[in-house]
Give the backbone structure.
Amino acid sequence: MITSTTTANTIRAIEAPPFNDGFLHAYFVFDVGESIDLGELERAGTRYQRAQLKVQGQVSPRYLQFREAPIAANLDEQLVENSSFRTDLKIYPYGTIVVRFTLDLRGGWEECAGKCTQLRRSPNLENRAKSVLDNVIKEISQAINKAYEPLMEDYFVIHMVSQTEVTSSSLLNECRAQLAALIVGETQLLSPLEEQEVLKYSYSYFESDLTVVHWDSCFILDTVAGAQPILDILEFANTQLVELRYYDNWLDREFDKIYKRDINAAGPAWLHGGVSAAKSAEKLRLMLVDLRELSDEANNALKIMGDAFYARLYRGISSRFGLTNWHEQVESKLNSADQIYRYMIDQAHVARSQFFEIIIIALIAIEILLSLIGH
C-alpha cells in the first residue's frame, strides 16, 4: 500500500480528490475454443442470460449492439487477498470466456490507489480466475467446438463514481500526476513525458465524466449506469485482442509445420510430391477458410457506426490496444498462407505431370522392348 512521505516525487493524498465511492474491475479474458454454442447453453438452464449492450440502463441503439449478444451469469463471490470480489461470467460465441472480479473501493485516494496496486501485482487474482474458468469449462464443455489450451488477457478498470466536487478538467489538470500514477499502478510520480503518454487517450462527454484508456488498465469517472457501456466495450476489445493473438500463434504453428514438411521431404518429387503437396494444400485451404470465418465473426460481432461518443471511444481503445496492427499482422500472414497454398497446388500439379510423363515414357519403353522381343 502507498505510504505518505515528504519527498517531492511521492504521491501525496492531500493533492488528490476524494475517492468516496468506486470499484476495481479485474477482467480475465480466455480464448478456449473455435466457437461456443450459446443457444445450447440457454436451453440447458436459466443460469445464462443474453447480455446486450445497454446505455444508461436502456437497450442500446442500433449502431451500438452485438450481432449475437453474449450470455452472462453471476457466480459466487471469491475471497482473494482478504477482499471479497463479486464474480461475473460472460461467454462470447467466438470461443471467448470472460471472468470479471469486482471490488468495492471506499476511502481516500491514497488508500484506494494502494489497494488497486497491491491487487494488480498479486498473482492470486489470476490464479483464482483460472480456477473459476476450469469449473466453467467442465460445465459447458459440450457447447465448446474444438476446445484448446486457453490463451489469456487481463485488464484492470478503476471506476470512480461521479462526484460533484470532481470533474474531468480537475482530474486532467490539477490531479493529472496522481491520475497517471494510479492508472499504471505506480507509487511514484511519473515523468512529464510518461504522464502525457498515459493520459493520451482521454475521453469526456460531460464535464462530470472521464475515461482514460491505457494498454492494460483504464480509469473511468462516471455514474454506475454511464460506466456500463464503456466497461462492455473495453471487455469486447479485450476479447478481440485475445482472438487475434490466437490467430497469430495458430498461423505461426502452421507455417512451422509446412516448412518442416518441405525440409524433411525425401525422395524424388515425382514420387512423393503430388500426393504430399495436395494433402498439405487441402489442409491449408481448410485452415484458411476456418480462420477467415472465425476472424470475421469476431471482428464483426459488435456494430459501432457513426460519430457517436462510443464509436470514437472504441476507435481510441482499438488504437491503444494495437488492434489495427494485430489485424494487419494476421492478414499479412493469411496472405502469405494463401500464396503458400497456391505454391503447393502448383507443386502438386508439377509432380503429377512429372509422374504421368514418367509413366508414358515407361509405357513407350515397354512397347519398344516387346516389339524387339517379338522380332
About this structure: DSSP finds ten helices and 13 strands in the chain. Residues 1-14, 269-274 have pLDDT under 50 and may be disordered. The longest strand covers residues 144-161.
